[in-house]
C-alpha cells in the first residue's frame, strides 16, 4: 500500500480534533478566563503606579529663573542664576570659542567615535597643567591622574563616589554656607556631610577663627571641601596668609583637601592668581583632589566640560587610582562627550588662542568688578543705611548682600528683582543700566525694615 494513502492514526485524529476546537469561535456557553490588567498596562484604569509620588519643590536657584520668566514686567531683573551676561544683558559666546569651533568643524578628519572612559587625553593633560601649573612637580613626576567629567558637578560626584568606595574616612566637611548642590552630591555618593564655619554675617566676611576651630576638631583623615577661589555664594575668600594657615592645620590633622575650582581666572582675571590656593596644597607633596569646571571661564555652560584631578604620593598609586576611577565612571555615564572638551583642548594648546582667551577672560572679570564698584557707589550716593563695603571686598560672580528673605521678597514684589532668598546676587547679571534700579530696590528694602 502507498504510505501517502494511509488513514490518519488515532493519535493524529485526536490532535486534529483538539486543534479544530481551538479554532472554532467560542459559543455563549464557553467559560472565559478572566485576565486582570497589570498595574503598568494601559488597561489598568486611571491609577498610576507612581500615584504616591509627591511634587518635589523647585530647585531654589533654577526656580528663581522660572519665576522670572513668568513675570511680564519690562523692569524685571534676574540676579539668581550664575551665568555671565554682557552689558546688554545677553549671553556671551567667547570669540576664541567660536574660532575653536570653526577649526573643529573644518577638520574633516574628526569623527564622532566614543572617547575612552577617562575622556580626551589632550584635554586631561592640559586641564591638569592649567590648575596645577605647567611646571608642577606633581605632573612631572606622573603623580596626577586626571579624568574628563561632566562639568564641575560631575567632577565632584565622580570624586565623591571614588572616596566613598576607597577612602578610609567617609565624612566630608563643607563650608557654611556653600553652593546648594554640594550637600546633595556628597550625601547621594554615600558620604556623611558635616559643616565648618565660614561666613560671618556680622562682618559679612570670613569667620576665620571659627573655621580654624572647626577644622581643628574634625576627626583625623576627614575630607574637607574647599572653594579654590570666588566662594559661592558669599564671594568671601581667605587671604594667602590665611590659606597657608589652613594648609598647615589640615596637613597636621591629616585632613584630605577636595577643591572645587569653578571660577579659575573668572574671579581676579588671572588664571595663576585664582589657582594659588590649590597649588599651595600640591607643593607640599601631599594628596589633593581638584574638581574643575569650564562653564564660567570659557562660557561653556551647556557643553558640560569639567575634569577631576587627583594628586597622589607617587606614579604607581596614581595609576591604580585611575583604574578605579574608570570603574566609577563606566556604569555612571560610560564616557564623556567629545565636543566641549575638544574646544577647550584646541584653545589651551594653541599659544595665540590661549592668549586671546586670557584677554577675554580678564574682560569678563573686570566687568564684574566694575559692577561691584558701581553698585557700592550707587548705594552710598543714596545714603542707604548700613556698611556696603563688603560688595567691593568680595570677589567673583556672587555677592552675599546681607539682605534677609523678607527684604528679598519685597524687592521681588515691588521691583521685579529676582534672587535667591538668602540675598545672594549674581553680579554678572548686572549692567550699568540696571544698577540704579537694583540700588533703589535695596535702599527701599533696607529703609522699610527700619
Characteristic key phrases:
two-stranded parallel sheet; 44% helix; 2 domains; Aspartate aminotransferase; Aspartate Aminotransferase, domain 2; Aspartate Aminotransferase, domain 1; alpha/beta; single chain; 13 strands; transferase; 7-stranded mixed β-sheet; 450 residues
Can you characterise this structure?
It holds the Pfam family Aminotran_1_2. With 450 residues, the protein is of the alpha/beta class. The protein folds into two domains: 60-93 and 366-448, Aspartate Aminotransferase, domain 1 (Alpha-Beta Complex), CATH 3.90.1150; 114-349, Aspartate Aminotransferase, domain 2. Helix content is 44%, strand content 13%. It is built from 16 helices and 13 strands. The protein has helices at 10-23, 62-70, 95-106, 121-132, 137-140, 151-166, 181-188, 208-216, 240-253, 276-283, 315-333, 339-348, 351-382, 390-393, 405-415, 435-448, and strands at 77-78, 144-150, 171-176, 192-197, 199-200, 205-206, 223-227, 256-261, 288-293, 305-311, 398-400, 417-418, 424-426. The strands form four sheets. A seven-stranded mixed sheet has the order 2-10-9-8-7-3-4. The protein has a two-stranded parallel ribbon with strand order 1-12. A two-stranded antiparallel sheet has the order 5-6. Helix 10 links the parallel strand 8 and strand 9 (288-293). Helix 3 packs antiparallel against helix 13 (351-382), helix 9 (240-253) packs parallel to helix 10 and helix 15 crosses helix 16. The longest helix has 32 residues, at 351-382. It is globular and about 110 Å long. The model has no long low-confidence stretch (mean pLDDT 91).
Amino acid at each position: 500500500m502507498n504510505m501517502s494513502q494511509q488513514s490518519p492514526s488515532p493519535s493524529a485524529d485526536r490532535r486534529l480534533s483538539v486543534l479544530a476546537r481551538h479554532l472554532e469561535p467560542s459559543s455563549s456557553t464557553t467559560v472565559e478566563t478572566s485576565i486582570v490588567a497589570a498595574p503598568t498596562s494601559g488597561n489598568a484604569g486611571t491609577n498610576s503606579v507612581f500615584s504616591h509620588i509627591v511634587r518635589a519643590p523647585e530647585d531654589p536657584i533654577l526656580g528663581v529663573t522660572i519665576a522670572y520668566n513668568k513675570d511680564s514686567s519690562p523692569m524685571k531683573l534676574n540676579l539668581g542664576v550664575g551665568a555671565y551676561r554682557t552689558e546688554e544683558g545677553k549671553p556671551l559666546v567667547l570669540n576664541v570659542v567660536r574660532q575653536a569651533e570653526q577649526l573643529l568643524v573644518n577638520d574633516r578628519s574628526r569623527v564622532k567615535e566614543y572617547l575612552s572612559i577617562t575622556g580626551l587625553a589632550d584635554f586631561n593633560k592640559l586641564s591638569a597643567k592649567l590648575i596645577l601649573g605647567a611646571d608642577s612637580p606633581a605632573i612631572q613626576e606622573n603623580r596626577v591622574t586626571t579624568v574628563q567629567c561632566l562639568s564641575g558637578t560631575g567632577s565632584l560626584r565622580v570624586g565623591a563616589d571614588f572616596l566613598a568606595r576607597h577612602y578610609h574616612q567617609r565624612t566630608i566637611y563643607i563650608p557654611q554656607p556653600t553652593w546648594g548642590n554640594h550637600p546633595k552630591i556628597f550625601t547621594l555618593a554615600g558620604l556623611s556631610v558635616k559643616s565648618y564655619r565660614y561666613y560671618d554675617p556680622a562682618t559679612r566676611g570670613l569667620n576665620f577663627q571659627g573655621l580654624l576651630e572647626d577644622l581643628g576638631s574634625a576627626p583625623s583623615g576627614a575630607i574637607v571641601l574647599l572653594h579654590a577661589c570666588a566662594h559661592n555664594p558669599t564671594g568671601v575668600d581667605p587671604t594667602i596668609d590665611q590659606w597657608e594657615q589652613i594648609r598647615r592645620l589640615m596637613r597636621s590633622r591629616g585632613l584630605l583637601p577636595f577643591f572645587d575650582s569653578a571660577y579659575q581666572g573668572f574671579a581676579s582675571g588671572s588664571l595663576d592668581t585664582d589657582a594659588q590656593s590649590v597649588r599651595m596644597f600640591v607643593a607640599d607633596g601631599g594628596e589633593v583632589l581638584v574638581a574643575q569646571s569650564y562653564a564660567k571661564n570659557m562660557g561653556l555652560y551647556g557643553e558640560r566640560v569639567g575634569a577631576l584631578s587627583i594628586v597622589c604620593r607617587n606614579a604607581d598609586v596614581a595609576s591604580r587610582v585611575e583604574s578605579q576611577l574608570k570603574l566609577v565612571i563606566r556604569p555612571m555615564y560610560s564616557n564623556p562627550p567629545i565636543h566641549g572638551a575638544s574646544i577647550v583642548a584646541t584653545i589651551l594648546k594653541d599659544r595665540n588662542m590661549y592668549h586671546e582667551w586670557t584677554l577675554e577672560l580678564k574682560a569678563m572679570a573686570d566687568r564684574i568688578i566694575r559692577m561691584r564698584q558701581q553698585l557700592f557707589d550707587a548705594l552710598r550716593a543714596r545714603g542707604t543705611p548700613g556698611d556696603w563695603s563688603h560688595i567691593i571686598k568680595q570677589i567673583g560672580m556672587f555677592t552675599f548682600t546681607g539682605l534677609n528673605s523678607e527684604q528679598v521678597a519685597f524687592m521681588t514684589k515691588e521691583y521685579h528683582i529676582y534672587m535667591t532668598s538668602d540675598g545672594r546676587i549674581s553680579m554678572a547679571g548686572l549692567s550699568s543700566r540696571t544698577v540704579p534700579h537694583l540700588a533703589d530696590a535695596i535702599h527701599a528694602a533696607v529703609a522699610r525694615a527700619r
